[in-house]
Amino acid sequence: MIMRRGGAVSALSTLLLLSAGLPARAADDPVADTVAPVVNDFGIPSGTLVGLNPYFTSTVSDNVGVVRVEVWHGRVRLADSGTGAWETVNFKPDLGGIREAGPVDLVIRAHDAAGNVGTATTTVIIDRDLPTATITPAFGTVVPALPLTIELTDIPSDILEISMDAPEPIGTTWRTSGPWTFKWNARKGMTPPVFTLRDVNDNISTITTGYFVDADVPQVTSVAPAWNALVRGTRIYSTITATDRAGVEKAQLNGSAVDTVAPWTGSIPAGADGAKTLTWTVTDRLGNFKRFNWPVIVDNTKPKLSVTKAPKNKAKVTGTVKVTAAASDKNGVARVELLINGKVVAKDVKAAYTFSINTKKYGKTIKFQLRAYDKAGNVTTSPTRTWKR
């Protein structure tokens, strides 16, 4: 019996008083969850060499259920499953921000609804080397609008696959082993292909080709002789200049040898008088070519010339003597020249051709001639007349 001043309290009453603040738990009251989730399989064995974006599957379990799974490195969360009911989770975290060298610890944290957290740690070695390759033709090459073979060399030994992404109808082409050659039907205006390289650690890099498809023919900038020019002689000589983005490789005048050095020249027999067509073919280094015709006029006929007024041969002359001439040519007379004692002393370019000769300037014996040129350069010279003063 427990005694106190003022009366006695029974043991039963005392027990009831002590337990008054602790009500009994009903049979259907919930039991607090204190069990942490378990990471059954991290998905990456310790010591594994991984790429910058490793793909793996983790398995987790819990007596009630896992609601979220995360991947951490130190204080940085690398991946998060989001809220759900999880037993297996696929991850592809970005490890590019991890700077320390050597082995790296990754931690999985599995959360249940009660706030319990289960963890697991694995140690990985990060492969930071992105796959590389040498591409032929090189980046930015000007290529023809023809089927093109592209080759990748200097491929790392841990390469898993290489793909070429090109416009339709080719689309994407994959290779998982060498030789690493790809075909591309190059067309003007097409987007050049892009290559994606993936190694065994899922490191991925891209190589852009930057090719320029040149379907343009060379542009001729000048031709000699001029358009419809008069030419004379036994052969016609022609010279051209041209430009091209890929460079001019050669040019050929039809009937002449190929010329590979600028400015490009050629010659062909002139043949009979009359219209003649020069046919040039200019080819760039990609095989694009331009063929064009260039007209000229062959004129090997001398102009007609006659002295219409002048002292006769062996005549005696004094003072100023006037002479006139008539000249004609089917393609036009360029000029008539006056020669005294073998030297040109005057020219006239308009019919009728008239000259005044001051005989006092030329001594006792004067040798007189006229000489006519046509527009092709053909020349006719009158017989010499000798005058006495």
Automatic annotation (TrEMBL):
Q: Which residues belong to any copy of the Ig-like domain? A: 364-386
Keyword terms, alphabetized? Signal
Biological process according to GO: carbohydrate metabolic process
Q: Which domain of life is it from?
A: Bacteria
**Signal peptide (UniProt feature, chain positions):** 1-26
Name of one Pfam family that matches:
Big_7
InterPro entries the record matches: Ig-like_bact, Ig-like_fold
Name of this protein: Ig-like domain-containing protein
Q: Which organism is it from?
A: Actinoplanes lobatus
